[in-house]
Structures are given as C-alpha cells and as structure tokens.
Automatic annotation (TrEMBL):
Coiled-coil boundaries: none
Domain of life from the UniProt record: Bacteria
Descriptive protein name: Uncharacterized protein YaeQ
Family matches, as SMART domains: YaeQ
Transmembrane segments: none
C-alpha cells in the first residue's frame, strides 16, 4: 500500500511592506511522504514572498495555490493562475533540472526558483549556463541555514506571520521566527 501525503494547515498573515500587500491566507499543504519539513516550509516561504503578485499581476482576480509538487513533476510547487486559467507565475523550490524549467517557462508568464540547502551552490554552477536563455526565469538562493530553521516552525496546524521588508522575509510563529534574505542569482 502506498504511503499517503501528510496534510498541514497554515493560517498565514502576510504583511508585504515592499509591495503594499496585506492579506490573510488559509493554506493547505500536502507533504509528500518523500518530502522533508524543510522543503515543505520553503514552499510556504516562496508563496509568501511571491503573494503580492496576486494583486500586482492579477489585480486580486486569481488563485495563488500549492501544486502537486513531488507527486507530479509537471506541476509547480506553487503557482498563480488568473481568472482565465492562464499561469501567471510558476514557483519551484530546490534544484530542478533545466529541461523542466524550460518547459515551465513555455507554460507560464514568469518562473521563479528558490534554491536552498548545502548543494544549491554546486547545482547553480552546473546549471547556470543552461538557463541563460530563459528570459522568464528568476533564480533565488536562500541561505543554507534557513531551511533547517524553517523546519523547526512546522506543525500540522500553524499560525504564521510573514513580514516582507527591504527584500527580506521574517516568518514568525509562537515557536519562534526565521529571518530570510534571499540572494538573486538570475
């Protein structure tokens, strides 16, 4: 019998001062049996950082949601879809291959990767030249120590506050807070 995904619920309050976006999001995250708490929380952080696009790109008339993630390699980790069904934003976390990223760039207006973990630098050196022609792609690096700290905040039912200011995000809960300063690689 196959293992089932573990369901996590998050009430996420976002205060994105940089973009003037303030909203509460009730989120459901399905953590695949092979996914770590670190990766799941990085997906949540990526969504929080990009949430302002719901207002900036879709004028509030769209859906910001998690994809199937590890369950379906052709589905984004998170995405923004407008009311016509058009993918406006495709979000991936980790160290994806170049061909799926090229495919994502053909399906969405913008693709954003949030690389994390100790292998991210090695991954980037190996793939950077293959991604130069992808104009719709942005690649961000989260500091190595961030993912383990985020995993400490993971609970089946979470109350989280995300504050975005001067390009950095602080994610807080009653268990503590994590300050994240992503670095843009592309």
């Amino acid at each position: 019998m196959a293992l089932k995904s573990t369901i996590f619920k998050a009430n996420l309050q976002i205060a994105d001062i940089d973009h003037g976006y303030y909203a509460d999001h009730a989120l459901t995250l399905a953590r695949h049996p092979s996914e770590t708490d670190e990766r799941m929380m990085v997906r949540l952080v990526a969504l929080a950082i990009q949430a302002h696009e719901l207002q900036d790109t879709c004028r509030g008339d769209g859906t910001l949601a998690f994809g199937a993630g590890l369950s379906d390699p052709d589905d984004p980790d998170a995405s923004l879809t407008d009311f016509t069904g058009r993918k406006r934003l495709w979000i991936e976390v980790g160290q994806p291959e170049d061909k799926p990223l090229a495919k994502a760039c053909s399906k969405a207006d913008a693709v954003v990767v949030y690389a994390f973990g100790s292998a991210a630098d090695v991954w980037w050196r190996g793939i950077e030249n293959k991604l130069t022609r992808l104009d719709r792609l942005q690649v961000w690096r989260l500091p190595t120590e961030v993912a383990p700290a985020l995993a400490e905040l993971a609970e089946r039912s979470m109350q989280l506050q995300a504050t975005v200011q001067e390009g950095a995000l602080t994610l807080s809960s009653e268990k503590g807070s994590v300050h994240i300063e992503p670095v843009r690689w592309k």
